[in-house]
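Box 3.1 A note on notation
Throughout this textbook, protein chains are presented in two layers. The first layer is the amino acid sequence; the second is a token string describing backbone geometry. Keep the layers aligned when reading.
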Amino acid sequence: MPTWVWALTVAGFLGVVAFDLVVMARRREQVTTRAAVLSLLGYVALAGLFGAGLWAWGPPHSGPEFAAGYLTEYSLSVDNLFVFLVVLTRIQVPSVAQDRVLFIGIVLSLAMRAVFILAGAAAISAAAWTFYVLGGFLLYTALALALDGAEEDGDAGPDEHRVVGALRRVLPLTEDYHGSRFVVRVDGRRFATPLVLAIAAIAVANVVFAVDSIPAIFGLTTNAYVVLAANGFALLGLRQLYFVVESLLTRLRFLKVGLVVILGFIGVKLVLEAMWETHLRHVASWDVPQVSTTFSLVTIVGVLATVTLASLAADSRAGATDAVVARPDE
């Protein structure tokens, strides 16, 4: 991509961030479901327009690559919503401040993710064997996720706790919240409120989850511009998705199965791509296939739709069974 396109894209993202900051500064009440839905639809529409622009005027295949990457990032980021729920509940973040905490934490994590994305693109450009490494890592992640049990203790993870512990040691913190303020003055001294801890936990969680999602997107495209754009649109719309589906998170019982399938599929695609890049295109009588971006996009959409419908159907059946059991015998 030309430099001016990069500059225009970064300016566009900064404009969206600034607009969100202005809206949050004027808001004095908790985010309503209606407001979250409208904002989420706005972000999805922006991503759709951006993808359409790439499809029409971008490099070949960049449009479908962006769509596949955006859906993959969004689906893998749903796990982050569970972490957000744990962090906001454990640190007891006031409802009126949750929007700001999520927003700042996500924006910080996006800036840190950009470093990983640019480093990953450089590594892939330097050596084709990087595909083997990324593909093997994704297959390992899918297997570990498949063998892992449900969230046992609702913990946000050791990395987040290390960051929170370090901040407690170096920052003067107040014991109580002061509305949605991050810094207050007490007896002439400045103190940070626990909102700072929540922001740190959210940001670190988003970076930790990038260890899985960024290699997955590189399995769909090696264009760093497309990867950054897909991450940006998915993450900036993530906090609205949290407020929309907060009460529905526990109903997506088959989400983990879907993530295992998506990670495993992209891992296999990366290994096949590595075999082509290293000119290993025939193994005995087997011709190594190439997985097209269109097929990847259809597969990801199909998996997400299947697990969502299956989860809702299972939840509906469970509700009907509970109703029958609760009904008194006639």
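Residues 239 and 297 are 24 Å apart (CA to CA). The chain has eleven helices and four strands.
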